[in-house]
Amino acid sequence: MIIKNKAIFLSLTMLFIMAGFIIPHKAQGAQLPINTATGIKKLKTADINAVILGDSIAVSQDASDPLTTGWDSDLNTLISRKYSHRILWNNKAKSGTLVDYCLQRAEEIDSKTDAVFICVGRNDRNFYTPGQFCLKYSDLIWMVHRKAPKADIFCIVEPPMVSSDDSSFTAIRSQIIVNAFNDQANSIDVWSDFPIKQRDLADVLSDGLHPNDAGYKIMSYSIGKKLFSIIDSGK
């Protein structure tokens, strides 16, 4: 009987030890304030400062004029119409990059930043397994939490592309949504707001991958819809 109880005790001890290794980011996050979407809500009364981390879509590649027809510019148009204020962008994204580049640039985020938009993952599908991407993406979210504790974090799932290869992005897409939920961030599934039919999708993409002006408008609408629901939630 004593041997049986000892075996149960050891088994429970091992479970607790294993749990400590399974959720390291939660352990780190326990020392940080829970993200309550306060930075983005400042738009009701003032302009806010936001950082963009990501790849080619984050910099609105293939827009006719990224400064005026990119998703961030279109989003500001929607915001200013509704709240008479705007987001002051600091775009640290770069075409052709991976989540690793975002981790490097996240080190530069100012502690007074109000919001951070992460738009990366499509290129990573060719270099990392979903599990590897998950760990790096989680590290990125928690680095942002540490650098700017009061900033709201928005994890953007990038648009689909006209290719059978888009199926390889499915696991990464799901991982971004799960990571955002687990790591106290907000996911924005832009992918789901784009056309499902390949012919219709091709009409809003410039090269089968990057959105054109019409595509970036869809992207800005998708992001704006999420932001407005948070800002007007009253919580």
TrEMBL record:
Ranges where the SGNH hydrolase-type esterase domain occurs: 52-218
InterPro entries in the cross-refs: SGNH_hydro, SGNH_hydro_sf
One Pfam match: Lipase_GDSL_2
Name of this chain's protein: Lysophospholipase L1-like esterase
Species this chain originates from: Desulfosporosinus acidiphilus (strain DSM 22704 / JCM 16185 / SJ4)
Highest classification ranks of the organism: Bacteria, Bacillati, Bacillota, Clostridia, Eubacteriales
